[in-house]
Amino acid sequence: MTKTSGAALAKSLLSIALRYCTGEGINATPLPGLTVVRRDRIIQATPGMYGPEVCFVLQGEKAVWTGNRVYHYNPTNYLVSCVDIPAIAEVVAASTIHPFICLKLELQASTVYEILQEISPSEIRPGEAEGGFYVEKVTPELAGAFARLMATLENKNDLKVLAPSIIREIHYRLMSSRFGAMIRQLGVVGSKAQKIGKVVEHLQKDYATPLRVAELARMANMSPSAFHLHFRQVTSMSPLQYQKHIRLQEARRLLSIETTDAASVAFQVGYESPSQFSREYRRLFGQPPMRHVELLREASVKRADGISEELVLKRMSV
After folding, report:
1. Per-residue model confidence as pLDDT tens digits over 51-109
2. CA atoms within 13 Å, Cβ hemisphere of 42
3. Nearest partner of 44 among 253, 305, 312, 300, judged by Cα
4. Contact 216/160 with Cβ under 8 angstroms?
5. Whole-prediction pTM
6. How many CB atoms lie within 10 A of CB 165?
């Protein structure tokens, strides 16, 4: 692909994506599993969750921290998450004129499994299968596949007939990349990624229960020491740190939708000490629980007194 055709492709992709993200935030498309994220301003570091997905940026830039690693992705680099991972994300390049635009496509273990049954093992590019995140350079083949996928959104018949095969192609392209071993583990029964993924799913559903590493290790069919090692390799954090992130993010959700006090929410998500909950909440979100939620609500409403949303969000990070 020439530089000219690459620029034309990017412009076409962006043009289609903008039609499906007229507002800020995560915008659904007619294709389940494909969303368009739009941010019209720089967003300071905010905790969140990444599931198994590929993030393909069309404009702007984002940085993601998990464990002690940071990943930057923009129109030249895409990001892949192979399991559910709590992370801190920051939109570092965005404006109302040039908003941050990102396509997010969910990855399916069943699709990875089907492809593995059809390809020759000798033709698979070798690589290390460690970690749950990676960033890789965008190839013309992957960009072309996303362009064709977005084009199917314009026609109902194309969406039904062509989109499934293009999604399959995107999975294949990711599996054939330098970090493809991490994607391939999604479709391998009994792989490290699948075993840790099973534990991760359990922790997300049962986050309020005290952590018992021995039980989690048995769930993964590993020794406690091996479980600790592999869990950290996949998620970039310990099981205790992972549970803490899940609890605190659920606490933020509960506080934002319920009229209740922080202590009640602390007990609800599994904390025995409200003071410990407040300390850890402030360490993660930068504000005490009730103050943080107050600012979140304030930032979500268009204020009549002229205080900009950017200023409100800036106050959150002080």
Report:
1. 999 999 999 999 998 877 889 999 999 999 988 888 889 999 999 999 999 999 999 98
2. 7
3. 312
4. no
5. 0.80
6. 12
